[in-house]
Write a structure and sequence with these properties.
This protein starts with 5 loop residues before the first strand and ends with a strand. With 131 residues, the chain is of the alpha+beta class. The chain has two helices and six strands, in the order βββαβαββ. The longest helix has 18 residues, at 50-67. A six-stranded mixed sheet has the order 1-2-3-6-4-5, with helices on one face.
Length: 131
């Protein structure tokens, strides 16, 4: 019988701990990274600029993946949530090109009415292969 395990992955500081959320978990060879927004290590939104927030969100994902010994090349699925699709679709495509490579991961892109903080414009989650 195989024992299943779920392991918490966190950076220091763990900006999600107060909210009872794991930054990521490893389960059965996959890393499931919680949605990351454009916040710095102190939990402050980086700016009102969509691309700046998006770049910070991907940088946060990179930090969490690195803590698990992985990187963006291990990503198999991306979920991107934006508050204004019409204005930012081209910018989302630009962010994908900056951070992701062939073969591009499967992707879900959704417009949402709001994110956890009113000044957040984008949140990104990923599933990656654990090494």
């Amino acid at each position: 019988m195989t024992t299943q395990r779920i392991e918490k992955i966190a950076t220091t500081p763990d900006w999600y701990a107060p909210y009872k959320i794991s930054q990521a978990v490893e389960a059965n060879g996959l890393l499931h990274v919680s949605g990351q927004a454009g916040i710095d290590e102190q939990g402050r939104t980086v700016s009102g600029d969509f691309l700046a927030q998006g770049r910070q969100a991907f940088a946060n994902i990179e930090r969490v993946l690195a803590e698990a010994g992985a990187d963006l090349g291990d990503v198999v699925k991306v979920g991107i949530f934006v508050t204004d699709m019409a204005t930012n679709l081209d910018k989302v495509i630009q962010l994908r090109g900056e951070f992701l490579r062939e073969p591009y991961p499967a992707d879900t892109l959704l417009e949402v009415s709001a994110l956890a903080q009113p000044d957040w414009q984008i949140e990104v989650e990923v599933t990656a292969l654990a090494r």
